[in-house]
Amino acid sequence: MGLILKNKNCVLGSLISLISIGFGLWLLLSKNISGTEFVALTLGFAIVGLIITFSSEVQEFSIAGNAVKLRELRSEAVKTLDELKQARTEIFRLLLTHSLEISGGFGSSLCKVDERVTKFSRLYNQIERFDCVKELHSDIDKVLNVLLICQYNELTLIHQLSKQVGVNFNELDSPQNLNIKLKDEMINQFTSRITPQPDFYDAKKIVLDGIEAYAKLYAMKVKLDKLENEL
């Protein structure tokens, strides 16, 4: 029984350490935290992992003092883990706010994908992976509504009507409907305003990429609205 418990603790402790390193590396590589912050974050999780890994060895002693120490270690580990989870949620909340920032460079007139969509999509996937969507539902919804409007407005060559933030979407605004509405004449009008004029099929792919980006955001919105109804 003691060996089984020890093995479980080793697996759990190792899992926590690996997940924390992976999460920290993702934040570091995406330039959302500095090297110092990465070290502090992973070190905190690593300490929790070590406590859990070696807790079974402390339990093997029958001395009363050690038994008390084990309870204290476990209590402290649970408290620290809860605090780290809360810190992780707050980091995600901060990253969501920054995800609306624009780089400040001059984007291509050909591109029909808002530069913030890709970064937000990666962030949303990580929030889902760490099961933080419920806690951050309101924050995600605010950012998503802005990006959804902006990406929709990138495709005015199809629907001819811009939307303002706060305006509701309906079935006519679905990505499937935009695909149906897209005609070759629209692509020709799009390319005619650009110098030098791009190839028709290259231009069409650019527009389809814009619809695909919009479809990703639209799917997130549908999923988020469904979750809101369940809360």
TrEMBL record:
Keywords: Membrane, Transmembrane, Transmembrane helix. It comes from the Bacteria. The keyword Transmembrane helix applies. The chain crosses the membrane at residues 12-29, 35-54. This is 5-bromo-4-chloroindolyl phosphate hydrolysis protein.
